[in-house]
Design goal:
Elements lengths: L2 H13 L8 H10 L3 E8 L2 E10 L4 E8 L8 H12 L4 E6 L4 H12 L3 E2 L4 E3 L9 E8 L4 H12 L4
Parallel strand pairs: 3-4
Antiparallel strand pairs: 1-2, 2-3, 4-7, 5-7, 6-7
Length: 163
């Protein structure tokens, strides 16, 4: 495993609770076998900043996981990364966020709202990533015009299938 992948794995496992993430080996398998799945290691001047993992579907882009190393947070890197992704596609973008049960999750929602994302007005339960994990109540956020109900079905069918 190269050093960037090792750093991404550590950040992934530190940032996302077990029920909100895949087994990292499964994630690497998906990256190799699913052409719609994109993994980007984020760097600035050869220093690891974080990662963004997303799916390019026909009607929308779905951000599965996005994280910036703690020491680089609140410096504008996350905003820059998201703005660059938004510029790369004309498609609507969807992502999941934890419900605003604490200061951090409330700030996270505000971060995305400042980038033009809106909280979806439909109930959403993130399906379990594997049989040993639990579904998680989340909010969907989106940017752009789309049919959220259709997109949720695509997410459930394509993203949360067993590998």
């Amino acid at each position: 495993m190269n050093s960037d992948i090792f750093l991404a794995k550590n950040l992934y496992e530190q940032t996302f609770p077990p029920d909100e993430r895949r087994n990292f080996d499964d994630l690497l398998k998906i990256a190799k076998t699913k052409s719609a799945f994109c993994t980007e290691i984020l760097k600035k001047e050869n220093e690891f900043l974080g990662f963004i993992f997303y799916w390019n579907f026909a009607d929308f882009v779905y951000i599965e996981h996005f994280a910036v190393e703690e020491r680089f947070r609140n410096q504008g890197f996350g905003k820059e990364i998201m703005q660059n992704l938004c510029k790369k596609t004309v498609l609507p973008i969807i992502l999941e966020v934890e419900k605003p049960d604490n200061k951090i999750s409330s700030r996270r929602i505000g971060f995305y709202e400042n980038l033009g994302f809106k909280v979806a007005e439909i109930p959403y339960l993130q399906p379990a990533y594997s049989p040993d994990k639990n579904p998680v109540p989340m909010f969907l956020m989106h940017r752009g015009q789309l049919c959220l109900k259709k997109c949720v079905e695509t997410i459930r069918r394509e993203v949360y299938q067993k590998f």
